[in-house]
Amino acid sequence: MKKLMAANWKMFKTAQDAKETAVELVELVGELSEDREVVVFPPFTALHAAGEVFSQHEGYSFGGQNVCAALEGAFTGEISPLMLKDAGCTWVLTGHSERRALFGETSEQVGEKTTFALNNGLNVCLCIGETLEEREAGKLEAVISEQLEKGLATIPDVAPECLAVAYEPVWAIGTGKVAGPEEIVEAHAIVRAKLLDILKGKANTTRVLYGGSVKPENATQIIALDNVDGVLVGGASLKAESFSKIVTA
Ligand code: G2H
């Protein structure tokens, strides 16, 4: 199983910046190790520019940060899986905590998007994670179990490599506060056990990524932990120099 090294560029970068970062990234990484796969999530307006670069390099792919659970229609401001595929995307993120917290996405909606994207031929990275308040109230397992149950409730029968789950504790996102190794191992074990319930035999080959303040300085340790099959990186993926160090960690 290849480690999935994912970059979430959030609402950063013009098309030109994205292209320059993509060119620099593939140069700095050099020959991508066989056990690594890179997927980058640029903003919609930079998909084409970044995609032109990544599509020419083995082991790199790119995707959208959000998707609508409809193919087309009167949904102002939304983007459909057909449009993402038309732009060359093979992946999409669903359920990122910023979508849940700032745009009110519910776990049910995240589940609809996940199913719809998979049904329409996109690979999905489903993001889950608890807030600090939920963690302190002892609800870690309940929260991530519910997000997984609802997020994967109606997914089609797809190959395990088409789905990834990113565990991102909300309190570690963009805060510089990374979860400790024990906390990551504990949460990833819960995710894996829940995936076994839901996906049965496919659970062990479905990649579970860690996200939340991953940096070059902590990536090597995080990637080596039990049940960590890759990382989803925000801030430290914006500069090719730092993301290249994470990709090769
Ligand atoms: C979590 C993560 C990327 P950061 O949002 O999805 O961002 O690495 O900046 O904490």
TrEMBL record:
GO terms for molecular function: triose-phosphate isomerase activity. Keywords: Cytoplasm, Gluconeogenesis, Glycolysis, Isomerase. It is found in: Cytoplasm. InterPro entries: Aldolase_TIM, TIM_sf, TrioseP_Isoase_bac/euk, Triosephosphate_isomerase, Triosephosphate_isomerase_AS. Its EC number is 5.3.1.1. Signal peptide: none annotated. Substrate binds at residues 8-10, 174, 213, 234-235. Pathway: Carbohydrate degradation; glycolysis; D-glyceraldehyde 3-phosphate from glycerone phosphate: step 1/1; Carbohydrate biosynthesis; gluconeogenesis. This is Triosephosphate isomerase. It comes from Halodesulfovibrio aestuarii. The gene is tpiA.
